[in-house]
Model the fold of this input.
Amino acid sequence: MRVAVRILPDPTNESLHGYLARVAGYNGYKNLSWLLGAVAVPRSFVTRPCDLSGLVQMLGGVTDSATLAGMAFWPSVTSLGYLRFGSTVVSPYNLSLQRSKYCPVCCANDRVAPRIWALIGYVACPHHSCLLRDECPRCGDAVPLLHPYRLQCRCSASLSDTPSDPASSAAIALSRFLDGLALGNPPTKGAAPVQDLETALRLIRFFGVAHPGQSWRSGYISKPLVREMAGRVEQAASVLLDWPHGLLAFIDSQRRRPTEGISLTAEFGPFLSRLREALNDPRFEEIIETVRRHISGPTHRVLTKPSSFFHTTAEQTGIVSAKTAGKVLGLTTATIARLIASGALRGESRRMGGRRAHFVESNSVENFIHSRARVLTVAEVARDLGISTFQVERLRQHRLVASVTGIGNSLQEHRYLPEAVTSFVEQLRACASNGLADSVSLSEVARMRSVALVEIIRQILAGLIPAYYDPSITGPMLDSILVCRIDLSKMRIGSSGCPRMSVRSAAKALGMAARMVPLLVNAGCLTASSSGKALARHGVSLRSVEEFPKLYATSRRLAVRHRTSSRVVMSKLTAARVTPVLRSDPRRGISAVWRQADVERVSAMDLFSPANAPKAKSRGGLG
Ligand SMILES: [Zn+2]
Ligand SMILES: [Zn+2]
Done:
């Protein structure tokens, strides 16, 4: 048999079942069952291949089997698991085949129902700017997939009379976007980088599930009716058509910003793992990469493990872990944590289970390295000022030079910002005038043992001692600041008019123990304002201390000079009948002191040469 009204199919636009519904409709059949039964085509023909020769015969040869088979959603031979969809393929998940979708205005105008209406993300007719329908406008019954074209509902309501709801511009734009992809056109500018229809549909399904809750999975795999799908399409359209801002805004909306925990799950909930699962395909790599860059970018700065799917390098995140920062800076994680807490490093510490995790902004690490390279150690400050490290420490203790801690490796180590050192010198220069009399620079003062540098500086800053500044002097900074010798001598001058120094400083200058100084005074090697236990605090004559090394020598010093032992020195000098000025007393830790002139006389006789050295007979120290 043949059907009375024979119409031509539209192979570029129409599906096989849509064409058969149209044939049934034009021929006045109430349903397709009779027609399919007559040509021995099973109802599964929509997605399963079958013999269409009977159908071709019934249609009176207006078309052929190959054309009809090309219109069907049959499995693709080249892409396993996909169904043919015109010139492309789609996954069965992306086809909505439980109902027939239609545009009432298209039906009223006798337009062919295009196969693209069967796609799950396609909810609006771009020609008429209205939502598609999948139900009867009067009774709300579903319109079956194989409903003959233009046939009224079982409630006798016409499906083409009532205009549908207007569609949103986003839904219409998305329909146009899908139309373009179905025809093989690449996406327009500003749209997501999708290469085919299938990719776009999966993105619509994924991003359409609003704020995924517990029912996310069922929401993702479900095939909702047009009315529900319209809302999802709206949401997905912003991601697909406002690229990449729509996607970035979507990610932003998923961020939780927890106070605890640092994992991606803590930050984004299950969103990212779902994204990874749903878009696990090389075709989404560009989209995944955008997500990856965004979560590690300046907006979120989420730190990921190197093993994480969403991991990006530190240059992209701008954040490093405390461990990495510690490695770079040579500090422990605990120190890094303390530096974060003190604000020396910009970063964040967060509880993560039983421990705390710390992150540092990588540019903050760089700044830290830079400032650490810039700060001066005590030795550098001493060199710059032209004084000893000990005096720098004294200046710091007297708060004359400001220091910083925590920048060096150890917490206790004080370092100095260059500006702190210069401001100290500036302060001194501000107190100084230009007159130059018989003056001495502060770095020279620093080397004097008769006066304390700190004391002089305090007096200068207090305006008690005039200071002079000679900008022509280069070298260490304190070289150019001078004080008058007369003012210095006023500071520490004994009754004899000679500068004097304390027992301690005298001992230090001589490189001896302090207990030696009163003994030397008593022996007449040093002069002092008073002697013995009553030795005045600043009673030792500076000149006698200065002259001591020229006139006297200890056994130890002689031993060092002649590369022998103190005992040999002692025995030889005793043998040569040289009397020490101060006898040794090993029990009290006192070594013998000899007159240089006596020693030189013996040395001239070459007594110290090992060849004719007499063997030391006595093992004990000689008195
Ligand atoms: Zn329409
Ligand atoms: Zn109805």
Residues 226-241 form the longest helix (16 residues). Residues 375-493 form one domain.
